[in-house]
């Protein structure tokens, strides 16, 4: 594949696959509403295009981390219901009201600030409540549930939704899942009739018990692996091709890259590729003689990175290609059907989420298809 853009690489985002993934998850969680988590620029895929495609696929409930992200969704999808997972930023209530964004309230301070805005305007602006069932990240502590309930009852204010978040959903047999499920159930009894939401992608795949009225998939929409140790059923969404700059031969014993951390154990053919940590190819994908690193696909074959990943380049061993020698300008596949975000995540000692959200701007982006699928 030849690459044309002056930036070199090309990131392709398959909006049709994104839409198909949403619909597949919506089928699995048939009894619940299926939201779409589009935080962090829709996991690196582009929040505007992704939100539009997800809306076309049928999504109406969107979750972002920040207000800025919520505003981006609002601009892309005027009729979206948008929850801001980070909650209410102090002093920002007017912005939420103006943009029709719902904070996911997670502390008494947030709750009181939101209620004060409601009282000031004499309007029950919608919000959700987040209860911490064991993660010690955001959320009211469980012993605050009755205080929150009493406070809301006194004002006649009903939240749109109560939610919690699973710490270990990627391991379906982890006992913490059942513990959190039970604790969430105890919160629900204090808010009868209020829609509830517990499941991220992995929770959604774990079983109906976790679905309640709304599920909140993120990573699975973007083709990433939600559950460990299982075949990933989702369609890949992201493909990344970056150009080969130079092909060269090097001799046994020569070293490659910064720190001379990798020395060649045979005469080798190398390809230097325009892709480095400044492009989101994490430095932890570096290889040395004692530890393998990331890989890329050239001419259909998986080729290992050798030496350190530098800012703008990686060096790849293409000796195994024999005389099938690629030309400068030709593309190397970093993400695609052969190597996906989780393969790169595993190789770099991280997770597909980080690979996706590290995608940067030094390649052109192109979008394939949209969310409008034949039914
Ligand atoms: C990020 C996030 C999700 C989505 O999680 P995935 O594992 O990407 O499906 C759901 N809920 C909350 C609170 C989150 O922070």
TrEMBL record:
Catalytic residues (positions): 39, 258
Associated pathway: Amino-acid biosynthesis; D-alanine biosynthesis; D-alanine from L-alanine: step 1/1
Reactions performed catalytically: L-alanine = D-alanine
Needed co-factor(s): pyridoxal 5'-phosphate
Residues in Alanine racemase C-terminal domain copies: 237-368
Modified residues (N6-(pyridoxal phosphate)lysine): 39
Enzyme class label: isomerase
Lineage: superkingdom: Bacteria
Pfam family, one: Ala_racemase_N
Keywords: Isomerase, Pyridoxal phosphate
GO CC terms of this entry: cytosol
The keyword Isomerase appears for this protein: yes
GO MF annotation terms: alanine racemase activity; pyridoxal phosphate binding
HAMAP family according to UniProt: Ala_racemase
Function: Catalyzes the interconversion of L-alanine and D-alanine. May also act on other amino acids.
Family: Belongs to the alanine racemase family.
UniProt name for this protein: Alanine racemase
């Amino acid at each position: 594949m030849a690459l044309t853009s002056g930036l070199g690489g090309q990131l392709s985002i398959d909006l049709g696959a994104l839409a198909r993934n949403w619909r597949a998850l919506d089928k699995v969680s048939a009894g619940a509403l299926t939201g779409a988590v589009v935080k962090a620029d829709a996991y690196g895929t582009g929040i505007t295009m992704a939100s539009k495609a997800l809306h076309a696929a049928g999504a109406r409930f969107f979750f972002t981390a920040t207000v800025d992200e919520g505003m981006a969704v609002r601009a892309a999808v005027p009729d979206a219901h948008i929850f801001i997972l980070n909650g209410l930023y102090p002093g920002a209530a007017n912005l939420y009201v103006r943009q029709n964004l719902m904070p996911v309230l997670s502390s008494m301070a947030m709750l009181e600030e939101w209620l004060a805005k409601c009282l000031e305007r004499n309007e029950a602006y919608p919000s959700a409540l987040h209860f911490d069932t064991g993660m010690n990240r955001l959320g009211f502590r469980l012993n605050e549930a009755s205080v929150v309930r009493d406070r809301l009852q006194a004002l006649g204010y009903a939240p749109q939704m109560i939610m919690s978040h699973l710490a270990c959903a990627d391991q379906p047999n982890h006992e913490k899942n059942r513990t959190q499920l039970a604790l969430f159930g105890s919160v629900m009894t204090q808010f009868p009739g209020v829609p509830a939401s517990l499941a991220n992608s992995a929770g959604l795949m774990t079983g109906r018990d976790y679905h309640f009225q709304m599920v909140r998939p993120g990573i699975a929409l973007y083709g990433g692996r939600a559950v460990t140790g299982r075949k990933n059923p989702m369609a890949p969404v992201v493909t990344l091709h970056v150009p080969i700059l130079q092909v060269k031969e090097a001799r046994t014993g020569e070293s490659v890259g910064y720190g001379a951390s990798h020395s060649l154990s045979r005469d080798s053919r190398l390809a230097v590729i325009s892709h480095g940590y400044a492009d989101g190819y994490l430095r932890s994908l570096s290889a040395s003689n004692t530890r393998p690193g990331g890989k890329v696909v050239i001419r259909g074959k998986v080729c290992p990175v050798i030496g350190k990943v530098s800012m703008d380049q990686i060096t790849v061993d293409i000796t195994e290609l024999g005389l099938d020698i690629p030309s400068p300008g030709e593309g190397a596949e970093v993400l695609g059907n052969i190597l996906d975000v989780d393969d790169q995540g595993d190789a770099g000692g991280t997770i597909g989420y980080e690979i996706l959200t590290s995608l940067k701007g030094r390649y052109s982006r192109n979008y394939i298809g949209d969310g409008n699928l034949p039914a």
